[in-house]
Amino acid sequence: MTRRFDCTYPIVECDIVDKASVKIYREKRLRWLEWLNGDDPYSIFHQIYSLVWDYALFCAVNELRRIAFTEPSESVAFNGSVINLFDAGFVVTQATAIRRLIEKSKSDPKLAVISLRSVLADIEESRHLITRENCVCLDGLPYDYETVSQQWVSALPSNSDGVHVRWLPTSGPTAWHMSEWSCPYKAGHPSNVMPVFYTPSVTPSSIPYGDDIHYSPRTRMKAIPLRFVHRVRYG
Asked: I want to staple 185 with a disulfide (CB 3.0 to 4.6 A). Which of 117, 119, 143, 218 is the partner?
């Protein structure tokens, strides 16, 4: 059965050198996506959505209470006991949801909960799998997009006006522009917004970030820097 975040192309058809690594990365990625935005009612997205929605409802009811107090009417009133229970319930549900989101990962799977903290911790532990190659070529996209782009352009039908109109492929080994958008590697590329990727042997203290960040040339096996993961995890 095909799951929501499953890849379309088998690994043997992907432009991947380290196929063992991408196999593990696919499994990890699937788990992260399921935890973040899966169908589970306790996925992180559903938890945050519930937090925000409950807060919006509380604010709406609270505004009605304010209006009822400043502009009293005989036809509108609030029961004090019910409102106190409403306030207490809101605080408890919000605190419980926040506690669940920041819950530490458990060694025993039976005690584990889906939390943002556990997802980020798992990503940090598996950051050696988050390489340029795995990120770009995960599902059939080409790594050397310039070569594929040249082949695609040369195969365009020619006409007397010199104008070519054709849909760009969005998946598979010919979708060169998706690879270019995903992780451009040309120096000075205007859309090159991915931070420099380093080999896992480089110490985090030597990795620049912020105003000092620079961009690395095309390298398949370079992994995402630890300090970048820490920026996301700790702010």
From this structure: 218
